[in-house]
Design a protein that fits this description.
Nucleotidyltransferase, domain 5; globular
Amino acid sequence: MPLTIGGEDNRPVLQNETLIRDPAGGSNQSGLRDQNARLVLSYLRRHGAMASAEIARRSGLSAQTVSNIIRALTAEGLITRGAAIKGKVGKPSIPVALNPEGVLSLGLSIGRRAAELVLVDFDGAVIDSRATAYPYPVIDNVFAFLAESSAAITAARPGARELLAGIGVARPNQIWQWLELVNAPPAALRAWRDLDLGEAVADAAGLEAFIENDATSACVAEHLQGRGSEFSDFAYIFMGAFVGGGLVLNGKVVSGAARNAAALGPFPVPMPGGGVTQLLNVASLHVLESALLARGEAPGALRASPSDWSAFEADLGPWIDETARYLALVAAAIGSIVEVEAVLVDGAMPEDVRARLTAATRAAFGGLDATGIEPLRIEEAAVGRRARSIGAALLPIHARYFVA
């Protein structure tokens, strides 16, 4: 069984009040042993394998406390011991590391055009996945997909069920508000509006459920599995069916009281012919899909070819140029409001397309008057199209086992 840290394991629906907390100093009081265990695991997650003496030095815990925690975590199967390192004065040091097989977690991404379920290990690596596409999300179909896929994923790995920390769910905030843009009928909109998603997923999966905005979940994945170690403060743009975003300040993902911080999609931008519209109306994959449909391409053509969009270049090139101009405006707005080191560009697209979009955004930003804005880098993100589902899967792990 996984180490349960804090609270009773009675499948409450958590809203992930603090996505990532800054590591706090440890305490040698026995009443705070769980916090100390989280602290040790957090150092191993952030820095990789290290000896107990190094953990004690970094954390401020006593050597005896760290030794006791490592013994308990090893017994729980959460960490593994490496080979002894010799050649130094004194006893050989034995590094310890997270055991990838010690904890598993499910992540469900519910999008406006597709859903994906992934299984990740304690290191956050994806070890299995299932996906489905649709014209628009229907509740019964999404939950049928969840039931079938979760059963298949766990059945393929005997004992996996007992190792699950929970299930994270990434979904657009108020998904019903924009379903009409993908021609969903009014009944579908009302059904999502009236659903208690967290409770429904917890009941369906039989697991503790953690609910988060989809773009924020993607930002969590980038922060923890991508380039987050390079930047303490960055903004994140994820280009999905509709554009979304996230924000990391002081090494912490900012979620917001309504789980909608740095959403970016509703950001007002000027239209070429005059007037103002929301960013999602002019800079999203939905815009590209609409252009392809007008040309006679089959619905879902982009999703049918997730790693190669070269066949769509006639529409792809102009879409990149136009989208980049809008993203440059958003980057300038971000930089004028909050000091970040970089804006990272990601999306459900092939890596070469992401690279082109990033480069075009950087060039467009360079052409703006950035007087008064602190130097800002426009950089390519690293996690990619699965960022939302990976981030969702990381939510239970980090809520239960880590302080950062």
